[in-house]
Design goal:
By secondary structure, the chain is of the alpha+beta class. The protein has eleven helices and 37 strands. The protein folds into three domains: about 80 residues, Phosphorylase Kinase, domain 1 (2-Layer Sandwich), CATH 3.30.200.20; about 150 residues, Transferase(Phosphotransferase), domain 1 (Orthogonal Bundle), CATH 1.10.510.10; about 230 residues, Methylamine Dehydrogenase, Chain H (7 Propeller), CATH 2.130.10.10. Helix 4 packs antiparallel against helix 6, helix 4 packs antiparallel against helix 9 and helix 8 packs antiparallel against helix 9. The chain is globular, with a radius of gyration of 28 Å.
């Protein structure tokens, strides 16, 4: 903790610890002046002498390749030395493997070919990694796929020197070590052996050898790996050559192994390329579901919201004319010039109340920390449980309210001058304050309140999405880059965690943590319109009534294809969600409890 406090006083603001190695800690950090997100690797002084560190740093700086985590700068301080490296928001290949998400053959080949590209460049500089493993293969999100960056080039070689001349044991990760590495010998072929182990693991779901370090050493030296006959023969041949015991019988160059994989990939049909591996992992099939008839509503309903509970009107209490629940969720439904509202228990009994009438058609209904707000034309109204409608603010143009949740600030975006946003405080006598965000002039820009002090402004340009972290006064604190395009993100119940959908030919659900910055990708077979949080994880619903449920790590754990086709949705964690559907003579309101969906999960 003392080290972390000292690091925070430097040129970089620490966002969180993301890794721990034998030479120090790796932090996600943002440069205080430029706002760039980097990986800050602290190298402990008592682990390496300055002479040895600077000599190896020369090798690190000589490696510039898109598939290598390049060293950008060096920070020197009383606390040690910090390498400033490329940051990869997708985590590590180990984390991707641990997610148990099946990968297509195309995805596996791409990951390995990129790794071989990096090794080809490093071996050309006469640098051998010596510790290739999934933990050292970092992932960045790219459109429809991952871009890898191998980390710790050169640093792994330092571990041998650090042990000293009297040390006879090998260093590295025994599960991925070539036989000669156990005798402190290494060459480029040693790295290719480790790549063969990783390819085996991606294809089969397990490594060829397991056990204690001593058992692994014996296996690598003496046992031949059992390559499943279910794998295509060209892949089995590549694995057999990469995993030869003698370096001379293996691939001598990364380019040779890469060429064999590319040649095999060129022979695949589209269906072969889309084959999922490991073969023993199965997706959850859709479960049958017959929705019950909804609550009929007269006319179309345009907006829907769930309030955790509505605040009592001024002067009301236990002796008021109407009982008020402080805990029961409250359903809010906007229709034409009426706002319907009732505790969810009464809604289920088909008793919607209609206490609120507005002077103009309703464009939006939201919950603001237990307050019901409705936008009609250019006016923002606050609705009380006693049926009164109070005018809260008037704007020069129609506005769209940004989902406030239970925060102290409400933001309303001008629909005509999109660059203008109004900030309102909870105090009723505080007038709105106008803020200007030039980036919001782009149709591909969105603004999302994160907490009581920060907002996220996202803009999409080409194949890149940039996020700006802003204060509530509009000052920029930092930038987050995502090399793909996404739809506007939504908040979750976890602090500083967002959901977003990646667009394009290969859509995906993205789980985005902002501190430290990390993105997990969950494959989607189509575009989904609504994202939200329920028990066990996150839900996605399409315009056609397809429902998908993912756990918090991004694994698909349930899917239903017969939901009522919605026009509006409100999520009520942990279990219910509410849908409005269009009917022949109006609309209907449906409540669906995910515990009733016969999913193969335990609630």
């Amino acid at each position: 903790m003392a080290l972390l406090r000292k690091l925070r006083r430097g040129n970089y603001q620490i966002l969180g610890l993301v890794g721990q190695g034998q030479f120090g800690q790796v932090y996600c950090a943002v440069h205080r002046q430029t706002g760039t997100v980097v990986a800050l690797k602290n190298i402990n002084r008592d682990r390496l002498t300055t002479h040895r560190f600077l000599r190896e740093l020369r090798f690190l700086l000589s490696l510039e390749h898109p598939n290598i985590a390049n060293c950008c700068a060096l920070e020197l301080s009383d606390q040690g030395r910090q390498l400033v490296l490329d940051y990869c928001e997708g985590g590590t290949l180990r984390q991707l493997i641990d997610q148990l998400i099946p990968l297509t053959l195309t995805e596996i080949l791409a990951l390995i070919i990129q790794s071989l590209d990096a090794l080809e460049h490093a071996h050309g500089q006469r640098i051998v990694h010596c510790d290739i493993k999934p933990e050292n293969i970092l992932l960045s999100i790219a459109p429809g796929h991952w871009q890898i960056k191998i980390s710790d080039f050169g640093i792994a070689r330092l571990s041998q020197e650090f042990r000293g001349k009297g040390y006879t044991g090998a260093t590295g990760s025994p599960a991925y070590m070539a036989p000669e590495r156990f005798y402190n010998q290494h060459s480029g072929a040693s790295d290719l052996y480790a790549i063969g182990i990783i390819l085996f693991e991606l294809l089969t779901g397990d490594r060829p050898f397991s056990g204690t370090p001593e058992q692994l050493m014996v296996a690598h030296l003496n046992q031949q790996p059992t390559i499943p006959v279910s794998l295509p023969e060209p892949l089995r041949m590549i694995l057999r050559r990469a995993l030869q015991k003698l370096p001379g019988r293996r691939y001598k160059l990364a380019a040779q192994m890469k060429a064999d994989l590319i040649a095999y990939g060129d022979t695949l049909s589209p269906s072969d390329q889309a084959t999922f591996f490991p073969l023993q992992r199965q997706e959850f099939p859709p479960v049958p579901f017959t929705p019950s008839p909804g609550i009929p509503l007269a006319g179309p309903s345009l907006t829907l919201a769930i309030a955790p509970s509505l605040a009592a009107p001024s002067g009301a209490g236990a002796s008021g004319d109407r009982p008020i629940s402080a805990v029961e969720p409250y359903l809010l439904l906007g229709q034409d010039r009426q706002v319907y509202g009732a505790p969810v228990s009464k809604v289920a009994a088909l008793t919607l109340e209609t206490p609120w009438s507005l002077p103009a058609p309703i464009g939006q209904v939201v919950n603001w920390g237990g307050r019901c707000l409705a936008v009609a034309d250019r006016t923002l109204f606050e609705l009380s449980l006693d049926g009164t409608v109070g005018e809260r603010a008037t704007f020069p143009n129609p506005v769209t309210l940004l989902d406030p949740g239970d925060q102290d600030w409400l933001f309303a975006q001008d629909q005509v001058s999109r660059q203008r946003v109004w900030r309102l405080a909870r105090e009723r006598d505080t007038p709105p304050v106008a803020l200007t965000f030039p980036a919001l002039g782009s149709p591909a820009a969105s603004l999302l309140p994160l907490d009581n002090r920060h907002l996220l402004l996202t803009t999409t340009n080409g194949t890149t999405t940039q996020g700006q972290i802003l204060t509530r006064r509009g000052h920029v604190l930092g930038y987050l880059a995502l090399h793909t395009t996404i739809q506007p993100p939504v908040r979750t119940q976890t602090n500083l965690r967002l959901l977003a959908q990646e667009t394009g030919d290969k859509p995906a659900l993205l789980i985005i943590d902002l501190k430290p910055y990390r993105v997990r990708r969950c494959r989607l077979e189509r575009q989904f319109r609504w994202l939200g949080e329920l028990a066990l994880g996150y839900g996605a619903i399409s315009d056609a009534g397809h429902f998908r449920l993912f756990n918090y790590e991004g694994q698909l754990i349930g899917q239903v294809d017969q939901f009522p086709i919605p026009t509006a949705i409100a999520w009520q964690p942990p279990y219910p969600l509410w849908l409005i559907t269009a009917e022949d003579k109006g609309s209907a309101l449906h409540q669906i409890d995910i515990r009733d969906l016969d999913l193969d999960v335990i609630f």
